[in-house]
Amino acid sequence: MKRLTGFYPGSFDPVTNGHLDVIERACRLVDALYVGVGMQAGKTPLLSDADRITLLEHTVEPIARRTETDVRIVEFEGLMVHKARSLDAKLIIRGLRDTTDYNYEMQMVGMNAQMAPDLQTVFVPSSPHVRHISATLVRQIAAMGGDVSAFVPAIVLEALDKL
Questions:
Q1: Which end of the chain is more exposed for a tag (fewer CB within 10 A), N or C?
Q2: Rama region for 78: left / alpha / beta (φ>0; ψ in -120 to 50; rest)
Q3: Mean per-residue pLDDT for 84-94?
Q4: Is 10 strand, coil or helix?
Q5: Mean pLDDT value across residues 30-53
Q6: What global pTM score does this model have?
Q7: Domain extents for the chain?
Q8: Which of 103, 83, 16 minimizes the C-alpha distance to 52?
């Protein structure tokens, strides 16, 4: 039996409840899911690469167990289509919160289709209860001393509190 593998790329800086919603929903579509933590040269993330990977490992483990899906955290640099191919993924998973996300992601679909016509992008709409969550806003609120406990898992909140 052929396994269907997906690749969900992002910076996950920090991983939010919105990201975890997309991961859980993607697990219903695939047999294996790689969550790719982008290591982008020239960008300075709030959390270290190692912290982002560790936090994802801890937060996705219960989802993988609950959905009986093989979920692995991988790091990548460069083009997501190159990493997806190297993992033998057939689907690129992208979460959508609103039309702004949709417009941006549709541009990416066009570019990715030119570079990797063998890969398909699957949009996973965010659940209504997490649709408003953005890692960018979480970083901004946390930097100003605000309470982000409603937007991130407890282990991520602890990591942010140590910064």
A1: N
A2: left
A3: 98
A4: strand
A5: 92
A6: 0.95
A7: 5-161
A8: 16
Q: Tell me the pLDDT tens digit for each residue of 135-147.
A: 999 999 999 999 9
The mean of the pLDDT values for the chain is 96
Cα distances (angstroms) measured from residue 32 to each of 84, 111, 135, 146: 12, 25, 25, 36
CB 119 within 8 A of CB 5: no
Annotation: CATH topology of 5-161: Rossmann fold (3.40.50)
pLDDT in tens, 6-22: 999 999 999 999 999 99
- Pairing mode, strands 120-125 and 32-38: unpaired
| Count of other CB atoms within 10 angstroms of residue 111 | 11
Closest CA to 94 of 124, 56, 130, 118: 124
